[in-house]
Amino acid sequence: MTTANFQNAITWVSSEDLTARQYYPVAFDDGLIANDSLEAVGILLNKPKQGEFASIGVFGVMKFRAGLAVNSEGYRLRVTTSGYVVPCESGYYSVGRALDTVTSGSIGRGFFNFATPTYWTSSR
After folding, report:
1. What's the average model confidence in pLDDT over 8-23?
2. What is the signed CA dihedral for 93, 58, 72, 106, rounded to 10 degrees?
3. What is the 8-class DSSP label of residue 88?
4. What are the extents of the domains in the chain?
5. Structure confidence at residue 121 (pLDDT)
6. Cα-atom radius of gyration of the chain, to the nearest Å?
7. How much is the pLDDT for 47?
8. What confidence score (pLDDT) does residue 56 get?
9. What secondary structure letter does DSSP report for 115?
């Protein structure tokens, strides 16, 4: 699965061991796993241990860990309270769009913009 065509990333020192959290959204305030789209600053691109540099993709094409099935390309995506990326429903903030279909628990590809989450009022 080819992935990183273009992305803007930032780095900072990880405050905990995130080796098992690659492709999860990361929170802006504490660098831990995010629990909603507004808290998320980007997606963790590497597997840092505590004290190592975490690479966080803020904008562009990136892999993500799906918490629910994404049944179609183009679906808007959001961050859940458990730190997964799922299809966005009306009344939530979207941070990207799916680039392919993904089963729950799998790794998918999406085009993301964590800098400006969009409030979504439709089913797609």
Report:
1. 90
2. -110
3. P
4. 7-59, 63-120
5. 86
6. 13
7. 96
8. 94
9. T
